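Notebook entry, structure prediction.
Reason for the run: the old model in the group folder had no record of what sequence produced it. Starting over properly, with the input documented here first.
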Amino acid sequence: MFASVHAQDTPTDSVIGSAVDQKALADSLQVLSSEFAKLKSHVVQMEKDDQLEKIWKRKKYIKIGYATPSIERTDGEEMEWETDFAISLQQGKTAYLHAKPLWGIIKFGIDFGFADISYAKVKLKDMEHEGSTGSTGTGNSNTDGFDDIVSDAPNGSLMDMVGINLGMHKFEYGLHVGPSISINPWNHTIISSYFHAMPTASGLIQNDTFSYGFGCATSAGISIAYKVFSVGVEGRWSKIKYKQTSFDDEEDSDNVSIFDTEKFKIKESSTRFYIAFRF
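New structure, fully documented this time:
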């Protein structure tokens, strides 16, 4: 009798055990599905982060530019110059203020660099000024220490004596620092706008006369980049106070020094077009 009862209980226990195994298997599959979903989400996020890294990794830049400066004197006699040509070379880097772009497309940063070199070949725009500068032929001179530089016919220079006129040349070396905002609207395209403060050392050379000055220029611009290559345009403004040095060979000069130094101010505004390489 007991054997019969035991035989009747065995099928029931088997059914119960099978149900438990099926539930455990379902739980395991659910756990595996959840883990797989997490792994897939992690892989997708890694791919997205890797794509963002490729887009935003180019923080350094080298710019080669061509400018059209407008130069004028702001003290003394009114004078303006036109540019034969002007070129520039700038090196810098952008330090982004946050690792991931806001809303997936925008980054704020600080641009900075320790090399901004420019050269311009300039000449007087109003040539009538040349007739009013330098010696008048009567032994009287109406100069303020600046006219020997800006005139295309320097008066009394060694170069003039041998009939050589090298023209007027303007050199500048500056640093730059300032905020920038960059937008990534599509693929590897980045559009940036910026404002820079530029501590600048400047020099003016004409034949045997040299002037130098220090000041702070400002610039603002916009650029469009695709991977390595970029093009842009910027405006630049400066007002610099110069000191002129030249050899004074007048015998009756009251100045004991062999240098005759005068001060003058020049204001400059320019539009600079450039191509850039980012890496």
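Summary: Residues 127-156, 255-260 have pLDDT under 50 and may be disordered.
The old model has been moved to the deprecated folder.
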